[in-house]
Design a protein that fits this description.
The chain is mainly alpha-helical and about 300 residues long. The chain is built from 15 helices and three strands. Helix 8 packs across helix 9 (about 135-145) and helix 14 crosses helix 15 (about 280-305).
Length: about 300
């Protein structure tokens, strides 16, 4: 995985030195900004986005320049997915991160030079997004200016996805280039985003619970079967609830999403009672789980009506 078919390293020499612990993570390069996009999509408060973007960047790019760039990209994604206008995004990025975003696309296309530094990549990438009118147009503009094109396009693409979404045909084509294990990581991330959003709509807004269940869940690609889904509780010799495990289908449509909402509701009831001699009230909890299904469908219907 670390070399191409010619035996050449897929990674830069500084990255290799860092992995071997021969070099501390003090890069001022744009790698932190290029990889930070999941944080902008995942967290629902700007203060958390800023904090987590910094934490994710420090191990390899512990410089003010790189941290600022990563936070700027994550913030732009956060604002875009929350429905803010391009003017709002530009104004906040300019004010908070002191970036000058007043470029000319023609001037960049003619004069922009390759640079792996953050301050010569992130502002230019954000500008390309601001000048675009669609996801594809944003990617085309990011490539047109040259420079560190893979990094520029990665940053522009992540902000543009949050603002425009990605056309299905482009999404499907892009996934064909990923190895199965990487494709699974991508699919799992988007599935968790969808699930977290659905659970919040029914009042289960607990990131600690989601983090807890992440390593205690088994997903199956077998659609709508109902004979194996559910949560499993582990007790110690004193009858104290010590652990929860969950089996659910992968989310492929509304029905499988509802199954997940139902089973996660049961698991959450148990989670709130970890460390106690919890005995489930099956009728009461089943009624709550079904009610959460209905609540989600009602809110979804209301949202579609407003839209």
């Amino acid at each position: 995985m670390g070399v191409d078919k010619y035996g050449r390293s897929r990674f830069g020499k500084n990255f290799v030195s860092w992995v071997k612990k021969e070099k501390i993570g003090d890069s001022f390069g744009n790698g932190g900004a290029m990889r930070v996009s999941p944080i902008g999509f995942y967290f629902d408060r700007l203060e958390d986005v800023l904090k987590e973007a910094k934490s994710a960047t420090i191990p390899s790019h512990n410089t003010d320049e790189s941290i600022t760039g990563a936070q700027a990209v994550a913030t732009a994604i956060y604002l875009a997915r929350k429905g803010h206008s391009k003017k709002d995004i530009k104004d906040l990025i300019t004010f908070y991160f002191e970036y000058d975003l007043n470029y000319s696309l023609e001037e960049l296309s003619n004069n922009y030079q390759f640079s792996a530094s953050t301050h010569n990549s992130v502002p230019q990438a954000i500008y390309c997004f601001l000048e675009s009118d669609s996801f594809e147009d944003a990617i085309r503009k990011s490539i047109s200016i040259g420079g560190d094109s893979d990094t520029i396009a990665a940053i522009v693409g992540s902000i543009s996805e949050a603002f425009y979404g990605i056309p299905e045909e482009l999404k499907k084509e892009a996934l064909t280039y990923l190895l199965p294990e990487y494709k699974n990581i991508v699919n799992d991330f988007y599935e968790e985003l969808q699930l977290r959003s659905a659970l919040k709509q029914v009042g289960i807004d607990d990131d600690n619970f989601i983090a807890y269940m992440r390593t205690r869940i088994k997903k199956y690609d077998i659609g709508h079967r109902s004979d194996i889904w559910g949560y499993f509780a582990d007790y110690d010799e004193n009858g104290i609830l010590t652990n929860i495990r969950l089996i659910v289908p992968r989310i492929i449509d509304e029905k499988t999403l509802l199954i997940n909402i139902h089973e996660y509701t049961h698991a959450y009831d148990a989670y709130l009672n970890l460390g106690t001699s919890y005995v489930e009230n099956k009728d009461k909890n089943e009624a709550r789980a079904k009610n959460n299904e209905a609540k989600f469908l009602e809110k979804k219907k209301l949202y579609e009506h407003i839209s």
